[in-house]
Sequence to fold (167 residues):
Amino acid sequence: MCNFNKQTEDTKALIHLFMTKAAENVGGTNFLLELMEAMKSKKPHALSEKNSQVASNHTIIKWNKVVFQDKVDLIRAILDNHRSSENPDFNILSEPNAKKRKNILNMVRTLTPLEFVVTPQSHLDGGGFNFKVFDAVSDDEVKLNPIFITMFFCSTEFTKKALKHKI
Fold:
């Protein structure tokens, strides 16, 4: 999932367009990358921050609900299971194991209302942007939002490739 070269052309274009607009809305590429570096430096993971926010010198990301470490570990396990997959738009409910599927469904119910809001520290740098955890949610199909994965689980090198991508 975090290998930019293995993404479909549509996914590459989506990530490129969104990250380009996101960078413009927070004051530039360096401010966006600085925020992502601040997020990567949080241990054990930025999503499990108690105050539901991470700030860099110029940008801040906030979300409306505490995410417990077990949910972060489950997302990591899902991504690890699909890391070698050639299909980046996988349905996370396609798990054949009933117990794991139930855990995934519980995670989906918990994280669906979660919304991330990224704003620059100075209102002169832009209006910011927001995104959710899941792209599509229905009874039999749930897909992780590639922007969520990019912001929280992929390297800044992945984002740099996405920003430089030519459509």
